[in-house]
């Protein structure tokens, strides 16, 4: 039965998609069956794994609005043990679609649509990684309701904690009313520039705030890591000897170690 992990932070540019792609690919390399779900209409996780958004008819929007079956939305990638439910710009229209459905059907559960679909295929994977858009709207709520846990990527720069309290309040709200089993898997420090003192100060601040919830692994800021998605590859395929490849392998080991899968 798959463990479902959402990558969430309403602040953009903190490494959610980079981590979703590379954590999923690292888990796949370790023999885990992994599904990544692109829940962002910008489709960066989709294109970052080499898929063209014009090459498929069924995507996450078609799935959660009931237009296709979950198995038809899953696409195999060319990377080991890694599949994806892709996204397109259509996902931006899901709020309007769900409001319409709620007006037509009073019992329609707008925040549970992803969970309902994933319950059908959880047994086919070891991990399901959800790449969330930088907002706490309805699409992200669907991800949180469907998830067992969340990873919060936090950039090693000033204002790193900006908006985190709002995110934590959203998680508490979901726990109290829709998904009591949801927990914080961990806080991931990203984009560390080892040449500056600022990053080290932020690390100290984050560890003081979140204590043992912070992963030991820290993701470095590297040009190769930025380049990899433009080639449609995770970093472990684009540059197997990169420090980022090692970092995401270590993160995957930490994730596995926390639940014994």
Helix content: 40-55%
Residue-averaged pLDDT: 94
Cα end-to-end separation? 10 Å
Largest sheet: 8 strands, mixed
Structural class: alpha/beta
What is the strand tally?
A: 8
Low-pLDDT regions? none
Following the backbone from N to C, one meets helices and strands in this order, namely EHEHHHEEHHEHEHEHEHHH
What amount of the residues lies in strands? 15-25%
The backbone outline, from C-alpha atoms, is: globular
> What count of helical segments does DSSP give?
12
What is the radius of gyration? 17 Å
Widest β-sheet, arrangement of strands: 3-4-2-5-1-6-7-8
Task: Please give a structural write-up.
With 261 residues, this protein is α/β, with parallel strands linked by helices. 41% of the residues lie in helices and 18% in strands. The chain is built from twelve helices and eight strands. The longest helix has 17 residues, at 243-259. The protein is globular, with a radius of gyration of 17 Å.
Briefly say what this structure is:
With 261 residues, the chain is α/β, with parallel strands linked by helices. Helix content is 41%, strand content 18%.
Tag the structure with descriptive keywords:
single chain, 261 residues, alpha/beta, 8-stranded mixed beta sheet, 12 helices, 41% helix
Question: How does the SSE layout of this entry go?
Answer:
Layout: E1 3-7, H1 16-29, E2 34-39, H2 44-48, H3 60-64, H4 70-73, E3 75-76, E4 82-85, H5 94-104, H6 113-118, E5 127-132, H7 138-146, E6 149-155, H8 164-177, E7 183-192, H9 197-210, E8 214-220, H10 223-227, H11 235-238, H12 243-259
């Amino acid at each position: 039965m798959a463990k479902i992990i959402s990558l969430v932070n309403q602040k953009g540019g903190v490494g959610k998609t980079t981590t979703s792609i590379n954590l999923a690919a690292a888990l796949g390399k370790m023999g885990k069956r992994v599904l990544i779900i692109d829940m962002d209409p910008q489709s960066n996780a989709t294109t970052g794994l080499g898929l063209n958004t014009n090459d498929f008819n069924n995507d996450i929007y078609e799935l959660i609005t009931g237009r296709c079956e979950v198995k038809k939305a899953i696409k195999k990638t060319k990377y080991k043990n890694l599949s994806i439910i892709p996204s397109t710009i259509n996902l931006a229209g899901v709020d309007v679609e769900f409001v319409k459905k709620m007006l037509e059907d009073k019992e329609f559960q707008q925040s549970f649509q992803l969970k309902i679909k994933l319950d059908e295929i959880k047994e086919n994977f070891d991990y399901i990684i959800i790449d969330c858009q930088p907002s706490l709207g309805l699409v992200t709520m669907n991800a949180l309701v469907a998830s067992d846990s969340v990873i919060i990527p936090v950039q090693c720069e000033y204002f790193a904690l900006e908006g985190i309290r709002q995110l934590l309040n959203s998680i508490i709200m979901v726990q109290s009313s829709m998904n009591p089993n949801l927990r914080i898997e961990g806080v991931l420090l990203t984009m560390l520039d080892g040449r500056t003192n600022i990053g080290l100060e932020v690390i100290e601040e984050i560890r003081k705030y979140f204590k043992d919830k912070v992963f030991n692994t820290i993701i470095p800021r590297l040009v190769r890591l930025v380049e990899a998605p433009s080639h449609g590859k995770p970093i472990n395929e684009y540059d197997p000897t990169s420090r980022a490849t090692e970092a995401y392998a270590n993160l995957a080991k930490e994730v596995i170690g926390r639940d014994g899968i």
